[in-house]
Amino acid sequence: MAVGALWPVPGPGGGRYLRRLVAVPDPELGFSPAARVGAGQMLFRPGAEFGPRRQTAYELILLVRGELTIEVAGAAGTITTAGPPLDVGGDGATGAIDEGQHTVSPVLRGGDIVLLVPGLECTFRFSRRVETLVNYVMTYDPALPLPVLDLLPGHPVALPSSDAIRRLVETILAASEQAAWAGPETSTTSAAAPIWLGTSTIALFVDEARAAGLIRGRAAAREHPAITAARDLVRQRLGERIGLQAMSEAAHVAPEHLVRLFRRRLGTTPVRYLWSARVRMGVHLLENTDLSVAEIARRVGCLSPKHFTRLVRADFGMPPRDIRRRSAGSAAPLVAAGSGDTSDTGDSGDSSTIGASGEATPA
């Protein structure tokens, strides 16, 4: 189901949502639980800022007017841009500034588009002189081959937006109008169209960034097929009771061999990879729905809300309630009708440290 809103509602950092869409995947259409797409249009007052916020999704931010500077904590290298040199901080300098453990982006202006990837910890600062209007498309897990997503660097990539990307973003936002006028109970807007349009927008950006020389390499089979198969299983069955045995069966290798492959190629283990994906999905739901913590814990495969809370606190340094409070900053996010209880049971539940797969979760 796709749920939309057209009226201005408060957002983070002093911003206001002017349009907003949340597309919830329908398993009957073959979508995995991770195939969630959000899109919207936000207006930020002069001097607005928010963050730091850790990215849990792939997000394209298209500046319609105004200015945006992004500070990335612990970024390796520089923030990649295309086109003419962009000012940094409005002082005439160009390129990115590395301030110790932080990298500050060039000032992005109307017509620029930037891609943020999961794992980045970003602080957003908007023009001090004028209001800034942005459109965004956020997809938790684009339905693209994993080797294509692996091409994306671990820092923001920005370039002037093309007519094609702008039209795709506007088409997704138009779905928010259809969903909003119909209402969540009677909406005929399928989640399928926004999900595929969101994937297409990310794919088009990758193509344009590669053509501009901002993304190097090719989507070759550089990943072991067993790893790809195991990662695809996690994508498709994130909330189910799967573990190392199911991942190794999907990969057609022995569990011990899969552990060696993950350690050698990804620097982690299959079980840690699985639980990292579950935590990222859970935090994404905290930030983008008003589902209860208990319901989110169930959806991402945790045994209890307390189990989920422990994992989130270990990875993000704060409990689910604080993540939701910091990200929302105001009104509750949209959620499809009938998708769950909205009561917050953040720290209730048992103290189990065993995951839904029946295996010990990482400490």
Automatic annotation (TrEMBL):
Every HTH araC/xylS-type domain range: 228-326
UniProt region (Disordered), positions on chain: 322-363
Keywords linked to the UniProt accession: DNA-binding, Transcription, Transcription regulation
Ranges of Low complexity composition bias in the record: 336-363
A Pfam family of this chain: HTH_18
GO molecular function: DNA-binding transcription factor activity; sequence-specific DNA binding
Protein name (record): HTH araC/xylS-type domain-containing protein
Record lineage: Bacteria, Bacillati, Chloroflexota, environmental samples
